[in-house]
């Protein structure tokens, strides 16, 4: 199985110094997977970059949700949400929890 990545942009040469034991492991895994060491490393780097981008997006979305919740002054009680989710997971018809204000 040879992995060919579509090249939508020109490749940029780079140099990467890695410990010998890591290089040996990469070589072995690439061989076992039927791809070149280069293709393996590009795929691994792409995967790591995409994972970091997803994590950063998740954090931004969480911060925005927190900002909106603070602005609204309301949120959901953890125990009520957990009870609702357990009921849904068990296949029971459950009533969706309603947001509650924490402001006086």
Residues in β-strands, percent: under 5%
Unreliable stretches covering 5 or more consecutive residues: none
User: Could you tell me the radius of gyration in angstroms?
Assistant: 24 Å
Largest sheet: 2 strands, antiparallel
Q: Secondary-structure element order, as H and E?
A: HHEHE
Classify the secondary structure makeup into a structural class: mainly alpha
> Distance between termini?
64 Å
Give the strand order of the largest sheet, numbering strands 1, 2, ... along the chain. Answer: 1-2
Give me the number of helical elements: 3
Shape: elongated
Percent helix:
55-70%
Number of domains: 1
Average pLDDT works out at: 91
**How many β-strands, per DSSP?**
2
Question: What descriptors fit this protein?
Answer:
104 residues; mainly alpha; 2 strands
Word description of this protein:
This protein is mainly alpha-helical and about 100 residues long. The protein has one domain. Helices cover about 60% and strands about 5% of the residues. It is built from 3 helices and 2 strands. The chain has helices at about 20-35, 35-70, 80-90; strands at about 75, 100. The chain has a two-stranded antiparallel ribbon. Helix 1 packs across helix 2. The chain is elongated and about 55 Å long. The model has no long low-confidence stretch (mean pLDDT about 90).
Write the layout of secondary structure elements.
Elements: H1 20-33, H2 37-72, E1 74-75, H3 78-89, E2 100-101
Helix pairs in contact: 1-2
């Amino acid at each position: 199985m040879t992995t060919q990545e579509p090249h939508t942009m020109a490749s940029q040469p780079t140099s990467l110094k890695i410990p010998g034991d890591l290089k040996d492991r990469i070589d072995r895994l690439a061989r076992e997977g039927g791809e070149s060491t280069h293709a393996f490393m590009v795929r691994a780097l792409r995967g790591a970059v995409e994972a970091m981008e997803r994590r950063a997006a998740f954090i931004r979305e969480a911060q925005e949700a927190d900002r909106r919740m603070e602005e609204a002054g309301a949120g959901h009680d953890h125990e009520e949400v957990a009870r609702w989710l357990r009921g849904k997971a068990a296949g029971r018809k459950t009533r969706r929890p309603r947001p509650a204000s924490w402001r006086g």
